[in-house]
Write a sequence for this structure.
């Protein structure tokens, strides 16, 4: 089962108590959750016990510092926080939120020139501070479209990074990317710019064409990063299950169960229809839960007391549990096979009184190189193997020998070899 499933946690700082852990860890564990995006304050740390308990439960936090780009927060203000988080086991951090939107900047600063340059000047010091503490900085999500066209914003960032030779930026590049559908199907924009005509910013999509504004935004970003930096980034899909974050609109066309199926690859249908490659590390549903007064409450999958709001959650838990049991049975079966067959692959060679012909050693070298089998000359010893390759040179092994191996349950692969000048 893929370890991709995640959630965005409460969008306040009031739910980092031990009582919250006791409520949410069992729920998250029952859904095989591997990631939890946490809104992180810039002035105080999320309690250590909250962080370490999540990690012990197999849930890796992604800390999101979403203060405005040109706020008064300095890198030095986060030095102790990041050092502590790294010591507690945190791996991933994000600085800023959708910097291609006006809301990400303080009043009056958006219209100033060189916006992307100013963003990068502000962003790179935080990147370096994170890396100094052994943390992985995740590039913040951009708003598809946005007040500054996101493809243009990202391309400019990447070009500046290349010009400045900021190799630390691209060495282990991770990105948080919007997976909002914007009311399109999950196939919308699939294949990226190599499949579709790259749209002009804010232009109407031509008839028969599709753009990047949908579930597959990450594919368009991936091609762009590859083109400019020649690296393939790793992705976290944020706002998973949403149609439009700005309107607090969930995607009702695709059920919670279907989206979990895609994230965890629970069925063959999900693997074929909307398969996600290994570069997609996590799919974080928006939103786990919210306070009663929070306007995001209508887009949460659980109420503040931990009761599921989405109808498919109980069935989804059962499906995940069944899939886990099945995989466990496969693992046990594999270990049982190892116990039944002490030898996995045996290369059975003929034995002559005077030794082994030189040309035989040369001819079996490819088998040794590719399969790395146990090599021997005993039919009885070979019966302990799961598979036996019989090097039957000049009829050295009889049909009776081969039948003995088959009756022992071995998979027999016979190599018939004729060597001139050999006397048997």
């Amino acid at each position: 089962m893929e370890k991709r499933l995640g959630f965005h946690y409460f969008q306040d700082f009031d739910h980092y108590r031990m009582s919250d852990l006791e409520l949410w860890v069992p729920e998250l564990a029952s859904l095989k959750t591997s990631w939890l995006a946490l809104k992180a304050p810039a002035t105080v740390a999320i309690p250590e016990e909250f962080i370490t308990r999540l990690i012990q439960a197999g849930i890796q936090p992604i800390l999101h510092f979403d203060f405005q780009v040109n706020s008064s927060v300095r890198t030095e203000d986060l030095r102790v926080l990041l050092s502590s988080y790294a010591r507690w086991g945190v791996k991933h951090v994000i600085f800023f939120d959708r910097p291609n939107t006006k809301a990400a900047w303080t009043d009056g600063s958006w219209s100033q020139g060189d916006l992307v340059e100013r963003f990068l000047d502000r962003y790179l010091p935080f990147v370096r501070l994170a890396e100094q503490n052994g943390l992985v900085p995740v590039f913040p999500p951009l708003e598809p479209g946005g007040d500054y066209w996101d493809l243009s914003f990202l391309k400019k960032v990447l070009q500046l990074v290349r010009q400045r030779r900021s190799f630390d930026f691209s060495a282990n590049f991770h990105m948080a990317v919007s997976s909002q559908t914007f009311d399109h199907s999950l196939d919308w924009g699939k294949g990226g710019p190599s499949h579709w005509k790259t749209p002009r910013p804010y232009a109407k999509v031509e008839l028969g064409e599709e753009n990047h504004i949908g579930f597959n935004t990450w594919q368009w970003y991936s091609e762009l990063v590859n083109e400019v930096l020649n690296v393939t980034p790793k992705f976290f899909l944020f706002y998973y299950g949403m149609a439009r974050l700005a309107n607090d609109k969930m995607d009702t066309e695709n059920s919670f169960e279907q989206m979990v199926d895609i994230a965890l690859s629970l069925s063959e249908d999900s693997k074929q229809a909307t398969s996600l490659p290994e570069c997609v590390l996590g799919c974080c549903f928006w939103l786990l839960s919210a306070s009663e007064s929070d306007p995001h409450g209508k887009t949460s999958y659980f109420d503040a007391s931990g009761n599921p709001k989405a109808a498919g959650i109980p069935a989804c838990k059962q499906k995940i549990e069944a899939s886990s049991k099945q995989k466990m049975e496969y693992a046990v079966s594999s270990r049982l096979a190892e116990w039944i067959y002490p030898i996995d692959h045996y290369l059975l060679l003929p034995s002559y009184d005077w030794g082994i012909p030189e040309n035989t050693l040369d001819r079996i070298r490819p088998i040794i190189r590719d399969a790395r089998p146990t090599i021997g000359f005993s039919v009885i010893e070979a019966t302990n193997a799961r598979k036996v390759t019989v090097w039957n040179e000049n009829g050295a092994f009889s049909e009776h020998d081969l039948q003995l191996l088959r009756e022992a349950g071995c998979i027999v692969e016979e190599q018939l070899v004729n060597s001139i000048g050999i006397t048997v």
